[in-house]
Amino acid sequence: MNYYLYKIHFTGPVHFGDGADAKALEHTTISLCADTLFSALCHSASQMDGENKIPALVQPIIKGRLAFSDLFPYKKDTLYIPKPILPAKLTGDMVDASRRKQMKGLKFIPVTRLEEFWRGLQGERELHVEELAADFGTPWDIIKAAVRNDKDALPYTVSGFLFYEDCGLYGLVKYENQDDLNLVRRLLKNLEMDGLGGKISSGYGKFRLQEEKILDDSEKYQDGQSSFLKNSLTAKTKGLSLLLTTSLPRDDELDNSMQGAYYTLTRRGGYVLSAKYSDRFYKKKTQYFFAAGSVFTNRFLGDIYHVSQEKEHPVYRYSCPIFMEVRQ
């Protein structure tokens, strides 16, 4: 399998709901889950060639030839990954009390400092938490008004995030077939004007593809960060693996994947974005996924889940993970 890395530079504010509760507009995150990206890619495919184009994206995933990571932040040339979720017994006494608050607020770490972070939590070396944190942008909250019939306008808040000029998000695509990757690249390019995330009809989420590279052994990409990332993604580890995709195992994988795992769960819901599906909004079925940053002893394959109400056409939720090795 091969890996493609792409960077996204947003030209305005973004709104990425965390899926935690019904007040989705009032909360936002700075990363984007893979199932949200996949839904946007399906929408892009339907715009290009109607619903007939979507199977060309879905089938390679079902056959294990194609997979996506969540989208994580970068700052200048430095890529960040989610902070590994580790048990309290490894963090409680190993980290200085004055730094525990910093540790709790830390969401992402530089990719090349993963092993350093891991060793620090085990007490094998000093852990400088303050050196791992980064500032990627600023909140962008707007008060709007909802007007219904002849009633008074009701104010509501739309929470967003505005990335700094030298910051944005990047994602990984695991692929086997060049044609599958070419399709993904075309769909991403088609999404630039539509945008990613929520409130795209209000101008949120518009972006430009800033950089694209194949993580291989060519001299062009032989910088330390790319090499570390490629080696961590392709290693056949017998130790722990860091989940880079918010995802859920199949029923027959669940028990095995949870053995020795350190994880948190996140709610995945949302609405169907398709005029052909219904003339009004329909909720997708709610599921609870393992959050990116969860750590597993036993990897899983995941699946594409059907989350529709059996209307005009099927509605899918993406759940096939990408893992990277956590060296021990």
Automatic annotation (TrEMBL):
InterPro entries: Csm4, Csm4_C, RAMP_III_fam. It comes from the Bacteria. Residues 241-326 form the Csm4 C-terminal domain. GO terms for biological process: defense response to virus. Residues 62-208 form the CRISPR type III-associated protein domain. Keywords: Antiviral defense, RNA-binding. GO terms for molecular function: RNA binding. It holds the Pfam family RAMPs. Belongs to the CRISPR-associated Csm4 family. This is CRISPR system Cms protein Csm4.
